[in-house]
Amino acid sequence: MEQLRQVLSELVIERVGFGIFVLDRDLNVLMWNRFMADHSGKPAEQVIGRSIFASFPELPRVWFTRKVESVFQLGSFAFSSWEQRPYLFKFDHDRPITGGVDYMQQDCTFMPVTHERDVGAVCVTISDVTHASMMQRARDEAVAKLQEFADRDGLTGIANRRYFDHRLGDQFSRWQRYGGELSMLLFDLDHFKRINDQLAHLVGDTVLRVMAERVARTVRVQDVFGRFGGEEFALLLPCTPFDDAMVVAEKVRCVIGETPIDVKGARVPVTASVGVATARRDVTSSYEALINESDAALYTAKREGRNRTVGFA
């Protein structure tokens, strides 16, 4: 009966659908099952009795050694998922190459093999989780795209008002905590209603898209450019003092109005009025106050004749 149990045990170890190998304290291989042999291309007789690194020098030596040594020292299980380290061995997988995965994605478990309470070896299992990892990546990408769509204005593709307010709130809280400089531009297109009334809304939509593209090409990576609604837009400028914000505002105003926009055979001249405000310790108590000051400066620019930049004073 004991011999039968041993035969069955060896049969199971050889036939299971995951890798099993055992290491001694010197990281020499004591056992190597068929899964490991089939996927590595190295039979047991070629691996057993040798250091795992002699057979697989590409293994992450420092990480792997620490992982195994911790099991010997603590006598407890250790685990590494594909999300932490996509793979341990560079095994081929049987999934479509369009999945964006080069090698089999692996979960690894490190288990102590004890004898009379002493850890005499470590058993490592390798599970093929390529399918699950590809599904998880696909879900993550889908969620990210949905989130991106939720944060973007449908017409212009830039940030929408909700997302802009969220980023403004974050930057304002950071400015309150750490100091520095924080400025904001609020601008809209002059006499935009005439474009819609005289040339139709489709032309107006094209004007807004082209204007947004022009401005988007001028802003820095850390800036946040968003549509407030209608023909009104905002630009958040972290780490930017008032004088520099005024320079940016003039650059934005000029890039909007430098060239008429061609739409369906018509050349539509476009200009913008810009209001600028900077967060100030003694005055600005909330990010809504920064919006209000930018809006007040924008109103002044319009009242003084449009197509100009005005800073809040």
TrEMBL record:
Top enzyme class: transferase
E.C. number: 2.7.7.65
Catalytic activity field: 2 GTP = 3',3'-c-di-GMP + 2 diphosphate
Alphabetical list of PROSITE patterns matching this protein: GGDEF, PAS
BP GO annotations: cell adhesion involved in single-species biofilm formation; negative regulation of bacterial-type flagellum-dependent cell motility; regulation of DNA-templated transcription
Domain of life the protein comes from: Bacteria
Residues spanning the signal sequence: none
Domain PAS: 1-56
Protein name: diguanylate cyclase
Organism in which the protein naturally occurs: Candidatus Burkholderia verschuerenii
Organism lineage string: Bacteria, Pseudomonadati, Pseudomonadota, Betaproteobacteria, Burkholderiales
